[in-house]
Design brief:
Layout lengths: L41 H22 L6 H5 L16 H9 L10 H20 L5 H16 L3 H18 L4 H18 L3 H11 L4 H12 L2 H8 L4 H7 L3 H15 L2 E3 H8 L3 H8 L4 E3 L2 E3 L7
Antiparallel strand pairs: 1-3, 2-3
Helix pairs in contact: 1-3, 1-4, 4-5, 5-6, 6-7, 7-8, 7-11, 9-10
Length: about 300
């Protein structure tokens, strides 16, 4: 017999009139380094990577006309020759769409961008925790590096570059083009952001990298050749451009010092063209206090006895 006060069968469920909160697929998973084990299997990692790409496409659609992305979203997952293998995302087909204008400055998408950056960290930690060095790990790391370079998020792309080149590459070689691309990013980061030219040249010679634009840029930084520097800056792709921007301030300062030592007066347009910056920006960021008279800038005045 059933004892008084107790109901037979399953315990009664507690019902709530409140609607369950909708969970974000990227935020619902925690960091593997904090004990979350949701991403510690290959299938989960690849599905999570696909979710990251979907969110990148969503960010682009909120900035641009999203009509051209309808077919791209459905083509995100590309299976390999073995249908039993987990989904592997083809970087070359989707990446241009997923990264297009990802570094936009719209405040409305800043939260989504922060979520994406955190999700990329979770995926990186999961790949490291499971010791993956397969094609998916290479593709995922390459995508994360490119995306976070556009976002200028050093805390993401720098450790990812080091892991890809120092841990994955020696055990499973990257393709020639991908290796050359990633080495170029690493060298530019060393030379422009970290200002460590010795390390940049050491990496270049260690891997035997031959890239005319990177070589010319390194030489321009070493010799203070601002003409070559700005010429190369206008020829590189947008990923390299984001890395080179870290050296803009020092090169502009060097250019201004050259003008200060060489001219008594000069046209303002000439200074703006040589530094690739507007006069107001130079006054604000470099504290330029040279006197102006219309379009002429007086750098030094000869004292008359």
């Amino acid at each position: 017999m059933t004892q008084p006060g107790k109901s037979r069968g399953r315990p009664r469920q507690t019902w709530s009139r409140l609607k369950a909160a909708k969970q974000d697929s990227l935020e619902s998973i925690g960091l593997p380094s904090k004990g979350d084990e949701s991403l510690l299997d290959a299938r989960s990692q690849e599905c999570y990577y696909s979710d990251i790409l979907h969110r990148c496409l969503h960010i682009n659609a909120t900035q641009n006309d999203g009509s051209s992305l309808d077919g791209a979203i459905g083509a995100l997952s590309v299976r390999g020759d073995d249908p039993e293998q987990p989904t592997v995302v083809d970087r070359r087909v989707k990446e241009a769409l997923a990264l297009d204008r990802l570094n936009g400055g719209d405040s409305e998408i800043s939260r989504d961008v922060s979520i994406v950056i955190q999700a990329m960290r979770k995926l990186r930690e999961a790949i490291v925790a499971t010791c993956r060095i397969d094609v998916f790990a290479q593709e995922a790391y390459a995508f994360i590096i490119r995306a976070t370079i556009l976002l200028k998020h050093v805390e993401s792309y720098h450790p990812a570059l080091l892991h890809l080149l120092n841990r994955i590459q020696p055990r499973r070689h990257l393709s020639e083009n991908t290796l050359k691309e990633m080495l170029g990013y690493h060298i530019l980061d060393l030379a422009c952001r970290q200002q460590d030219l010795n390390a940049a040249y050491r990496v270049r010679f260690t891997y035997g990298l031959h890239d005319t634009r990177i070589d010319d840029l390194l030489n321009a930084i070493v010799h203070g050749n601002w003409l070559t520097f700005w010429k190369i800056d206008g020829l590189v792709d947008r990923y390299q451009e984001c890395l080179i921007q870290a050296a803009h301030y020092n090169m502009r300062r060097h250019t201004l010092q050259c003008f200060g030592k060489s001219y008594l007066s000069i046209e303002r347009g000439c200074i703006e063209k040589a530094t690739h910056a507007a006069w107001d920006e130079l006054q604000k960021s470099h504290g330029v206090s040279w006197q102006t008279d219309g379009q002429m800038v007086t750098i030094r005045q000869i004292s008359r006895k």
